[in-house]
Amino acid sequence: MANKRQGPITWFITQEFLQRAMAICMGIFLLQYVNWMMKEAVVWEETTANLIKYTLFGIGATYFIPKIPIVLRGAIQVVVIIVITGIYLDYKFIPITAWKWSEFLPFIDGNMLQLMPYLWFTLGAGLVYVISIWGMSKKLWMYIGIMGSIIAFCIRDSFSNLSLWKEIAVVLFCSTMIVIITNLVRIQKHSPDAWRKLSQRPFPILIPVVLIAVIFYSIVQYTPSIRPILTDPYTAWKNYNGEQVMKFTTNEGGSLPANPDNHAESGYSRSDESLGGGFKYNYRTVMKVTSSQRSYWRGETRSVYTGSGWEKDPKEQDNRIAVKPWEAIQPDPRVDTSKASINSIPYTVTMLSDEAYPVLFGPNRIQQLQEITGKDGQNNPSIISKITWTPNDAVMNFKGNSSYPTTYTMVSQVPVIDVNELRKVKIEDVSAELWQDYLQIPETMPVRIKELAQKITQNSATPYDKVKNIERFLAGNFVYNTEPAKGTSEDFVDQFLFEVKEGYCDYYSTAMVMLTRSIGMPARWVKGFATGTSLLEEMLEKGGYRGAAPRLSNSADEFTVRNADAHSWAEVYFPGWGWVPFEPTSGFTMPTVLVNNVNEPIPTPPVANVDAPVDATDAGWNWRMWTFIFGIVLLVGLVTFLVIKFMPWRNAMNLVRRTRYSGNYNQMVVHDVYRLLQYAKRKGFERESNETTLRETLTRWMQTSVWLERELTTLLILYERAHYSGTMLTEAEWFEALRTIRKLRIAMK
């Protein structure tokens, strides 16, 4: 019942205050792990990280519900997790069509599949949150958790390109608060009088806490960057081995590689002047594209090859044209597409990244900009004024580092490729003077590259076959590797073709452009994003009942594009057909629209981990198997808890002792008291060396821990009767001693 002097708001705030404070600090503590994982390249998707964040907030909020049993709170927390997951994933209930067993599995699959696998992450996050709050109440686990976290953050910050200083500062602050709260809980439990006085005059505790918070915030916010006086061991070791360390150069605490030899993360590149080096995949989501057709999402092109990378041709930037919504965009007058059949493909791009890009993405050549909206959801004229079109390279440019559109709808022209007609194009049809910019070859490029191009194409009768053979040669003879070896040649293409013979898309596409130019065909280098993953593919990858897939087929044209999908390829000009894309990278297939009279096989878009048709029961086994396993583990854990908590296992132990001492309750009481002394020592209730009798020890404990006086007095009387008197204790008195010892054990925790 609330104190009469307290109002309802004061009563609500003060009820279980320390538990709520612990929940808040623990939630902020765990949130730093989420922030850390979001900075990693290949740990969590953005959706997973956001769901875990919301789960931590939701679970923390349940601790503000006063005076409810722990089982009820746990049930509420599970419901909160499911609701948060469903709302974030835009869950749509799929009703059962008929109350038959054959329809029950599709009903379960169709609904559960929408939450998988993210529900496992959110349930796991909630379980970790609850267990962490319990663990932090134990002194040993508290210090293990705090020290382990600080060490882990510091090691990752020091030995990687991640900046985790803000997270480390917050972890230190939360750790300090957790230690303070844990000690206050002990004071509240073991010294009620001291706690009552402290709660009436809390300023001696609150003032240091506020000062600590201010100090930590000041350190994080205002401490300037200072160069170290001594070189740290990690940097010294790297330099000794001839390697360089990542340089921290961004304003937001991120890091950038000092040179291309260092490992970077996958994503849309800003500078292509120095290609090469390794990278690690970054799976953060960039955008979602709604389109009726698969495509590569084209960004920018480059035409000037320097021997080490690509540079912009100033001519490509001279003729920038303002873009107006719903007006046709002017094509490059030099491009002849008179023989090509064109499909107009509308598509909508929704950006999910806060990053501003220098272009708007689209398949092949953009024909029209229809709608565009900013972060406010409005068609802002200031955004449109930043968009221009350059016909030479067919790029939709965006100028500025802010106000990048969040959604835009455009129409692109996608040519229908007729291979038989393309084979009729002759090399004489190509005007070398008109397309000299795309035939550029640096004088420093080794001759053996041209010789290789001639060798690859010597048996090809037409320009198309020559280009196609170059594409096949690269895709079939070189190894895809995101961490290729280093070569000695000064030319990037020469290194790839003759030395390292491995690499990723930049290696393959650059080599194809230069090999194609070597046979007299205009070619240019293109960068953007590969197709990404459709919604249907994501559902199938997660495993589930295939019968649910047709119900989601209306969303199968939504593609999720991530930084890991960043890609580059080649475009080759064919008179009458315009710029035709080619995919030389091993393991990649470019979606292409072909006519029906093509003799060569039409490449099918890859669908990850989709096997031949299987039985519906087997298809749904993946997630049901894990659900079954999770249920078994949960059931075993629950039964174990009930056995430990409620079953009379203690009576069995008592029976063992009764058998051992043959019903001598005096010896049993003495034995149990000595076991209590061992337990009390672990909890800080030690026996001093000058105390010769147990009475002296227990009397001192009564004086220092007054809340134990009643139980200690009862136990002392029973102990002295059992140890010193000649009378035998009864079974009832032994049980009374056991109950008293149990109370003391609980109070000493």
UniProtKB/TrEMBL annotation:
<dbReference type="InterPro" id="IPR052901">
    <property type="entry name" value="Bact_TGase-like"/>
</dbReference>
<dbReference type="Pfam" id="PF01841">
    <property type="entry name" value="Transglut_core"/>
</dbReference>
<feature type="transmembrane region" description="Helical">
    <location>
        <begin position="118"/>
        <end position="135"/>
    </location>
</feature>
<keyword id="KW-0472">Membrane</keyword>
<feature type="transmembrane region" description="Helical">
    <location>
        <begin position="21"/>
        <end position="38"/>
    </location>
</feature>
<feature type="transmembrane region" description="Helical">
    <location>
        <begin position="205"/>
        <end position="223"/>
    </location>
</feature>
<dbReference type="InterPro" id="IPR038765">
    <property type="entry name" value="Papain-like_cys_pep_sf"/>
</dbReference>
<feature type="transmembrane region" description="Helical">
    <location>
        <begin position="165"/>
        <end position="185"/>
    </location>
</feature>
<feature type="transmembrane region" description="Helical">
    <location>
        <begin position="50"/>
        <end position="66"/>
    </location>
</feature>
<feature type="transmembrane region" description="Helical">
    <location>
        <begin position="140"/>
        <end position="159"/>
    </location>
</feature>
<feature type="domain" description="Transglutaminase-like">
    <location>
        <begin position="497"/>
        <end position="586"/>
    </location>
</feature>
<feature type="transmembrane region" description="Helical">
    <location>
        <begin position="623"/>
        <end position="644"/>
    </location>
</feature>
<feature type="region of interest" description="Disordered">
    <location>
        <begin position="251"/>
        <end position="273"/>
    </location>
</feature>
<dbReference type="InterPro" id="IPR002931">
    <property type="entry name" value="Transglutaminase-like"/>
</dbReference>
<keyword id="KW-1133">Transmembrane helix</keyword>
<keyword id="KW-0812">Transmembrane</keyword>
<feature type="transmembrane region" description="Helical">
    <location>
        <begin position="78"/>
        <end position="98"/>
    </location>
</feature>
<protein>
    <recommendedName>
        <fullName>Transglutaminase-like domain-containing protein</fullName>
    </recommendedName>
</protein>
